[in-house]
Design a protein that fits this description.
41% of the residues lie in helices and 21% in strands. It is α+β, with helices and mostly antiparallel strands and 229 residues long.
């Protein structure tokens, strides 16, 4: 959870552009606006910001992975999104965060002050357009997630998730899922047992293979696409 000012971070930051090779639209925005981004590192399961905390910063994942989630009144957890290297998160329509954000694994993020971005967008069309594109992407993901939870059965949800991660991990150069099966279940609205059964069935059918605790090899993408159709 970020409670200190940029000048006194929880961990020693590296100021300036990061060297991660992921597509870096966010860095281009901050560079065009003349803003200084700061990096923070978070340990596995460490909170980056909490629900209802002021949304003073906008973040980008440099390495690792982040999950956003909400705890329901009955104690269950609903994960809203996973963010991988290059992804931007923390963009809010209001003044506070609606979800909590945590590091899935040891993670480094870059952040800039939201107010600075908003001021830059007010005078630079390119910055405003880029921020709108990122916000529209978040909206599109939320709509896709809503349809997944509302209209697909358990196997279809797992297939959809594997295809999404296959596409996104390939873009970042990552080869293994950073999240555990419980995380997957909380994202898909399924129990841990249901996720495990679905993966076991896909493995028995020769659709996926397992290599290590979290490495899932997709052997038949077309079968997954048929399930996800």
């Amino acid at each position: 959870m970020l409670t200190q000012s940029i000048s006194t971070p929880l961990t020693s930051p590296k100021v300036g552009p990061a060297s991660h090779p992921a597509a870096d639209q966010f860095h281009a925005i901050t560079g065009h606006a003349g803003l200084v981004a700061t990096e923070f590192s978070y340990r596995k399961d460490e909170e980056i910001y909490g629900e209802d905390e002021p949304s003073d910063y906008v973040y980008q994942v440099i390495s690792g992975s982040v999950r956003s989630y909400k705890l329901l009144s009955d104690g269950r957890r609903q994960i809203g999104a996973f963010y991988l290297p290059g992804d931007v998160f923390g963009l809010e329509s209001g003044l506070v965060h609606r979800l909590t954000a945590e590091a899935v694994v040891d993670t480094t993020v870059r952040l800039v002050k939201r107010r600075s971005l908003e001021q830059a967008a007010g005078v630079a069309v390119q910055v405003a357009r880029s921020l709108w594109t990122m916000t529209a992407g978040e909206l599109r993901h939320a709509e896709d997630h809503m349809l997944l939870l509302g209209r697909k059965n358990a196997m279809e949800r797992v297939a959809s998730f594997l295809l999404e991660m296959d596409r996104r991990l390939a873009a970042t150069g990552m080869v293994a899922l950073p999240m555990c099966r419980r995380d997957i279940g909380d994202y898909l609205g399924l129990t841990l047992e249901t996720v495990s059964r679905a993966l076991s069935q896909l493995h028995a059918d020769g659709v996926v293979g397992f290599s290590g605790a979290r490495q899932i090899v997709l052997r038949n993408r077309q079968h997954l696409r048929n399930l996800d159709a």
